[in-house]
Amino acid sequence: MTVVAVVGTHTPVGARIAERLTARGATVVDLDGAADGPPVAAVLHAEVDPVLYEPTRLADLTPARWQALCARPVDRALATAWAAFELMATGEGRSGQGGVLGFVCPTVAMTGAAGQVAASTTGEAIRLLAKSAARRWGRFGITGNAFALRLDAPSPAGLQVHATALAADDLDPADDVASLLLYLSAPGAARLTGATFTADGGELMTP
Amino acid sequence: MWRGKVVLVTGAASGVGRGVVLAAAAAGASVALAVRRPATAAAVVDEVAALHGGGETRVVPCDLMQPEAAAAAVAATIAQLGRLDAIVHSATSNASSQPIALEDADLDGWAEHRTIAVDATVELARAAHAALKATRGSLLLMTSPAGIAGNDRLPFYAMAKGAQRGLVKALAREWGPDGIRVNALAPLAMSPAMESAFAAEPRLEEAVVGSISLGYFGDAERDVAPAALFLCSDDARYVTGQTLVVNGGRFTSL
């Protein structure tokens, strides 16, 4: 039985991934209280508020709105990271058994888009948290990876120019993320860390 | 190319910021030096004065940890020098080069990095948009390869520099129709913080230099500033949304 703590099940993306994890036989738990249950193999931060991806031009990003769209989501991701460390870190004086720390990020973080300054900035901050945690926490048995999904509205023109047919279809990547997370939680994936796995049907095909 | 133009540089008193000030002034630009403590900019102002043909300088007090400070710096620059052609945001947190273990860190530590690197950039950009649109100007952020590859002992620095890269890409796409270019530059140059670190641990300097393809630590004025000026200049008028890594080949992966 693989136990996965999912943060963000109150958001559409988090809820869908949790549902697919359960369908694939995992036990999904809340991060809060996870320390009282069986060992957690993975912690996934999938707290993706759709409002973050509504196009908002810089001129309309007031300080208050900026705090809501950037500062708070990154603070929440850090909180997840620290809680995951307490749960999963191995070593002297620690009770964890190792595991996977994952973050769902928007593909727009890697590309940028007009009206998506907040999403791109927040997404990259979180993706670099994943990488830095991977570098630091490998010694504690924790791998860190990001799962990049298209979360903003695609540009039809852009899709027509170079994306694959899969990218143009309205495919749900939640099952891809669930499947991959479970694979990464298995012993054979211990060296897959610091990566960004892009599940967008081949729209980006990052270098 | 730079005569008659105005550049605002944050973090202008030392390191890369100082290098950009000197290079811009040598090229004929007028430069606003945005610094937290004005007295720290005096030496740089004197260096500019010693140049032949340099433009005017103004020291603009700017504590980026304070709300509205970035916007005030932009306004002061335009008021005193008449226009704005480029902003080079070089200021970083004082903790940028102080190693921390992520598991021992807290949100307060992150907040300082975010405030200076990210929040201040948004404030600078919002305040400067009209002026940069009028001159078809440029915004340049000093980032780092740590913002691409992560860092095990500088996690907040890596997150802040990564966040800046995301911001650059999105803002470049948003401001392109306005004729404003937005880029990032990831430098490797000796700084007072690095000098202190190397003095404390000489083997560290040897290890770092050993990983630099060109075999030496970059100089902010001679090795980094020319690249920064290029990105802000008309020579790079078709370059936007990019990160140029200027570190002697130490970092070559995408």
Structural commentary:
The complex is a heterodimer of chains A (207) and B (254). Chain A has 207 residues and is α/β, with parallel strands linked by helices. Chain A is built from 7 helices and 6 strands. A 6-stranded parallel β-sheet of chain A has the order 2-1-3-4-5-6, sandwiched between helices. The longest helix of chain A has 26 residues, at 63-88. The mean pLDDT of chain A is 93. Chain B has a 7-stranded parallel β-sheet, sandwiched between helices. In chain B, α2 (42-49) links the parallel β2 and β3. Chain B has one domain (6-246): Rossmann fold, CATH 3.40.50. The two termini of chain B are 32 Å apart. Classes of the chains: A alpha/beta (207), B alpha/beta (254). The interface between A and B is large, with 48 and 43 residues.
Global outline of chain A: globular
Distance between the termini of chain B: 32 Å
Instruction: Characterize the quaternary organization of these chains.
Output: heterodimer
CATH architecture title of chain B: 3-Layer(aba) Sandwich
* Spatial order of strands in the largest sheet of chain B: 3-2-1-4-5-6-7
Query: How many domains, in number, for the residues of chain B?
Result: 1
CATH superfamily of chain A: NAD(P)-binding Rossmann-like Domain
Highest CATH level, the class of chain B: Alpha Beta
Name the largest protein-protein interface in this structure: A-B, 48 and 43 residues
